Amino acid sequence: MDVQDFWAKSAPKETVQEHTQQLLKRYDCLRERYESRLPVMSERDWELLRIAVQYHDVGKYDLMFQNKIRRALKMEQLEVNCEGETRHNYVSALAIPIKQLKLTDDEARVLLQAVGYHHERLTPLDNKEISKVKQVYESNVLPYRNRIKEELDIEIEDKPRVTTLYKLEQGKRILYEEGELFLRYVMIKGLLHRLDHAASAHVDVELAIDMNVMDNVNEYMNRKYNGKKRELQLYAEQHQDKHLVVMAQTGMGKTEAGLLWVGAEKGYFTLPLRVSLNAMYKRVTDADGIHFSRRIDDGEEATGLLHSSSIEVLEEYYEGNDEALEKVYAQSRQFANKLIVSTIDQILKFPFYYLGFEKEMASMAGNKIIIDELQAYNPHIAALIIRALTLIDELGGSFMIMTATLPDIYLKALQRRMIGSNREMLVHSFIDDSIQRHHVEVSPQSIGDEETILEMIRLGQDRKVLVICNTIKRAKEVFIKLKAFEQIKVSLLHAKFTNRDRDRLERELEAFEKNPDVTGIWVTTQLVEASLDIDFDRLFTEMSPLDSQFQRYGRCNRKGQKEKAVDEINVTVYTNQVSGIGKRSVYDPEIYAKSLSLMHTYLAEPRVLLESDKSQMVAALYDEAALEGTEYKQVFDDTLRELEDMIAYKMNSKKAQELLRNIREVQAIPYRYAGEPEIENAIHDWKTAKTSSQRRKARSRLERYAVGVNPYAAKGRLMEFSLVKQLYYVQADYDEAVGIDLSTFPPDFY
Question: Any idea where the HD Cas3-type domain is (predicted)?
């Protein structure tokens, strides 16, 4: 049968030949610019990757697949010789002429699995499916071998054998235990994913290749600081070829140091919280900031932003230009930018070896990754990060950890795994006791006591006062008590506001902090520990683990520049009836108890707490030997062991994301907003949307009114939207000044 075009995709229309040519174009770019930076890839591996590109979609010549595309295009159906339907990636693998290409057994395994699994499914390939693949290939593809040779410039296997497909059985997949072969496979399959996904999204595989972020940082430093660099920044710049672990307090210029270390290479900069990333993206791309930016007609190329709601942030930069927005968003998702600012769940979940992990892992090879604020992660995630950094070293990548405090248990675990590493790891501490920021007292009272409330009110009349509680419930209690005093402005911020109200409150908080003529009180939770760049005059806080405590102190007299700030107490820590301590609560009770003991030792009387004091206290708290027998150490050790023994290909990407984020929430809209015009309009737009972009925008508008709630805690009070999956109404009171009312929810859930 004469077939005019063999289609690869229906939206937009693209033939297999056109799509494959787009991959080859990106392959040439990647190899030309990055071959020297990827020593883990041999010349033969590059040849195998090219073969994988050429063969990866041969299975789409299957007439059954063509009819599926033609239905979408409303074209006439083709007559088929075999009615069986199977996955095109398996058919593509069978088309590879192993003997003709003179592949070794290892090369055949790598190539067959890279092509055969470039689309992953949890359903294993069984004998019945193998027979069907062979039948489809012989009946619906092989008759077009001359056409395939003409269009793709390749020969396909003319004597297909089922034994070829046995190499794709689940039990035959290439595992980490196979050493170098595993790394070769990860690179070839991972780069095939990158090339395929970039071509499908119609974006370049690499952008701004010629740009060097160090040049931009130097220009920024010249403009703002007359070129003067701090010790940390000089150290990072001088050791670009090493893994670095640096401990540095606030105000040391960590962001600039990290980017100076990245230099001319491709880099990933991670932070724990999205709001911090958004601020980082603005600072890096803004003309008044570092300005690592290359804007062309359809958007930013140099710097990408990547987190679960990054498209909503990017919409602010590309308002009214949907085409540019989609392209910029796609570039970040395909890791194309020279510098990518990201949360770790977007780039470091590959140690779970989920289906398709190779793309993420291969993207780290030969590149640089910065982990900022490692101490902000719980022991589960810290273990994952350490495992990821170990694998990155094996692939020729490099890392820099920048943190205010580094638990000894994390450092020792990493040092053990870096014995025999591909590059040296340097550890250095930058502590400056000449800058005194915090005069601290430890109080035996509760943060909600009447005497404490009166002191907050007194100080809030002529200063900026910040109150940090361990739980939302306690923050609300303190807020309500303070609100009884009408003569002073009091505001509340925590994580259980709708996305719309939380954004508004964060803007109000930042405006309050920046206005020198405004005084008052803000009551918050640990949400502000690492998220907002704020600097208050006076801090009242509940006691918490030391690393959390010292993060909180960084929101008060942040740069140590407030005149006479430490002549009197500017931080009070409350140790009675402390909220959020418990195995099913916010903070680990054993770590809390050790922290409290150290606080009493170091702060028997109020005094200025030096940066060296803080470092010594955290070192004592997280000393590996001292933590022996604690649940904290057991969780960390067990997680690291499980990751190192992880069985590959047993979960999908979504499951890995959930494990990493420890997701226990759904997005729910308080029922008071049901029927609101904005909600109804967004639902209408969702129903009538013709593209995924339109649906995403409609959902984004709905989620502006949503708040995260635990589905188990809200059981019986959630009503799912009929069309919009994983979005609910929740029957709970909601106040725009106080947030959602969780008072009838089980206490363990918030």
Answer: 9-198
